Structure formats: C-alpha cells, structure tokens
C-alpha cells in the first residue's frame, strides 16, 4: 500500500504541502523510515502523526528540503529533547509546541551547515610531499561538504597514528615502488623486459614494498577497519593492455637528446603485480587482514584506440594522455 502511495506521490511534482494521518492515534502513526520513504523531495510543508517523537530529528535530517513540519503524537508528550536539538543545530529555525503537536519552521540548510559536515568523517588525502598539491587544495576549497586535509608521506612508511583510520582507500598507486632495484636496458618499464634476473629483482622489490605497505596500513587501521585497494595488475597472460602506451613513451625518450647513460637511467620504478601477487592471502593473514572481496577487471587504455583508428592525431593523443595521467 505504502509503495503505491509513494509511487503516486513521486509523480505529483507540483505537490508542495502534504498531510499524512495527522489526526489518527499513535497506533496508526508513522515511523521516521515510513515518512522519509513516502515524502517526495518537492514537498516543502509536511503534517504527519509520528509514532515516536524522538524520531522527529531523523525526519528533519533526511528531508532537508522542508520549510515547515508539523508533527502530532497520540499522547501528551514532552518535546524538550527535540527543542534542545533544534536550538543546538538549527539556529535559524523557530518552533511552537503543545501537549500533542509540534510545529517547526526551518531555517534554510541549517542542518546541513550545523550538523552534517561536522559529523562527517575526516578525509586525509595522502601523497608524496614532493607532489604538486595545488589541484587538491583547489578541490577542497570548491567542495566544502566534508573536512579534508593533506598528508605528505610515502605510503611505505606509517603515515598516521596507530588505530586512527576507519577506511583506507588507495587507488592505482602501489605499482610505484619505493625505488628501482636496477636499471632496465632498451626500455623504461619492466613489462617489456625479458631478462629473468631483472624481472626477479623487480618482483622481489615489489614483494618487499607490498609487505611494508600492508604492515603500516595494518597499524593505522582500527580493529574492524577496512582497506580498499585498486591495483594496476596484469591478467593471466601477464598483460595489462597498456604496454603499447609505454612503448611510445620510450620511443619519445629516444628522440630526446639524452646520453646513453641517461637513457639507461630512465627506468620507471614501477611493477605490475599478477592477480595472485595482489591477492596474497598468506601475506594478508601475516598483517591481520581478512579478504572480503577481490575482482580482476580488464580496462581499455584511454585514447589509444581512438589514435590507432585515426580519430585523433598523435599530438592530440599525447596531450590527452598527459592530462589524463596528471588527473
Ligand atoms: C596514478 S596516480 C593515482 C592517483 C589517485 N589515487 C587516483 O586514483 O586518481 C599515483 C599516485 O601515487 C602517488 N605515489 C607514488 N608513490 C607513492 C608513495 N610511495 N607514497 C605515496 N604516494 C605515492 C603518486 O604521487 C601519484 O599521485
């Protein structure tokens, strides 16, 4: 029944005022969940009987579009808790109450301003201190819906205090190693290398770095905390689908006036782990992690197809790829 009323109301987009069961007894009256489910986002004035007056603040928090709301309760009620909460959080609002009903005229966005942001979790953006942080700070000024701060540390060290992080998220970053274990000849990236010794040195470095990364995250997370990793990895054939991109990068480097030593030194300290190297449950257990879910997804390298199909020129491809990597 409520589902069909709700879908009917969702279509009544001129509806600005809504009155639901306002005069009924508390046994028929509504919970915060029912009210938030049924009231569409264009209703500005609401009258409703409510089962539990303590749930009024849940309704006001969820239906932030409301300009006024009247609640009726089946028994004489004390509204002190809700009036105190309104005084604390909604400074531009006023209210009127008698034994059975409570009316509030809401100040615009006062809940959002006073409560939502302050109660949101703190977001700590971490990257190397040597990185260019300008666009992050611009982003934080533009989006002030949460508290965000910057932390300049290598993720191969502990970046935050013990047991201080609820959710850790790291995306497309841990293919960067803490250092290159050796130089690569005739290419800049490990995935073009056929020499088993060089491959093994990179594999070992990646393993040690992954251990360090997991150890530090394990210390920082609270008990029951979650670590989400998005890793650039290879498929079963050892491919990433992005190799061509890096061949072009090395060809470009060869066109520059580098000495042969500089060209050899142009070795990118990155390693693309296999799926099994990423999802290493033995390693997870060593650092007190339980695997919740893992998935391997193949992604098309951006812009490469358009360039190969001559939809864009090489210059456009280079410009788009550079701005993509810069984010
Ligand atoms: C491809 S970007 C990914 C950026 C972002 N996480 C995203 O998904 O858009 C890789 C980032 O990892 C950072 N990075 C590389 N090595 C790092 C390290 N040891 N500690 C912290 N950040 C590192 C780089 O500076 C770069 O910003």
UniProtKB/TrEMBL annotation:
Coiled coil: none annotated. Gene3D superfamilies: Methyltransferase, alpha-helical capping domain (1.10.1200.270), Vaccinia Virus protein VP39 (3.40.50.150). One of its GO terms (molecular function) is methyltransferase activity. Keywords: Magnesium, Metal-binding. SUPFAM superfamilies: S-adenosyl-L-methionine-dependent methyltransferases. It comes from the Eukaryota. The keyword Cell wall biogenesis/degradation does not apply. The keyword Amino-acid biosynthesis does not apply. This is Uncharacterized protein. It comes from Adineta steineri.
């Amino acid at each position: 029944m409520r589902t069909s009323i709700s879908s009917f109301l969702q279509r009544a987009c001129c509806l600005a005022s809504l009155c639901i069961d306002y005069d009924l007894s508390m046994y028929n009256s509504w919970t915060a969940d029912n009210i938030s489910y049924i009231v569409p986002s264009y209703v500005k004035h609401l009258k409703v009987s409510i089962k539990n007056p303590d749930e009024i603040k849940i309704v006001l928090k969820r239906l932030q579009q409301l300009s006024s709301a009247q609640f009726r309760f089946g028994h004489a009620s004390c509204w002190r808790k809700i009036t105190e909460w309104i005084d604390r959080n909604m400074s531009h609002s006023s209210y009127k109450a008698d034994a059975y009903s409570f009316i509030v005229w809401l100040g615009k966005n006062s809940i959002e301003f006073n409560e939502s942001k302050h109660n949101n979790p703190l977001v700590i953006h971490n990257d190397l201190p040597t990185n260019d942080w300008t666009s992050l700070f611009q982003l934080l000024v533009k989006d002030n819906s949460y508290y965000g701060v910057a932390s300049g540390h290598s993720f191969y060290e502990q970046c935050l205090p013990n047991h201080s992080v609820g959710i850790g998220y790291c995306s497309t970053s841990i293919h960067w190693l803490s250092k290159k274990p050796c130089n690569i000849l005739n290419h800049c990236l490990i995935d073009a290398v056929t020499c088993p010794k060089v491959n093994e040195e990179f594999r070992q470095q990646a393993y040690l770095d992954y251990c360090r990364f997991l150890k530090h995250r394990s210390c920082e997370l609270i008990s029951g905390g979650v670590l989400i990793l998005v890793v650039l990895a290879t498929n079963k054939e050892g491919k990433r689908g992005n190799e061509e991109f890096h061949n072009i990068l090395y060809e470009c480097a060869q066109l520059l006036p580098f000495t042969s030593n500089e060209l050899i030194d142009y070795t990118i300290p990155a390693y693309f782990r296999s799926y099994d190297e990423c999802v290493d449950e033995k390693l997870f257990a060593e650092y007190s992690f339980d695997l919740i879910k893992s998935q391997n997804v193949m992604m098309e390298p951006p812009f490469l197809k358009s360039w190969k199909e001559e939809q864009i020129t090489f210059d456009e491809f280079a410009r788009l790829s550079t701005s993509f990597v810069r984010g």
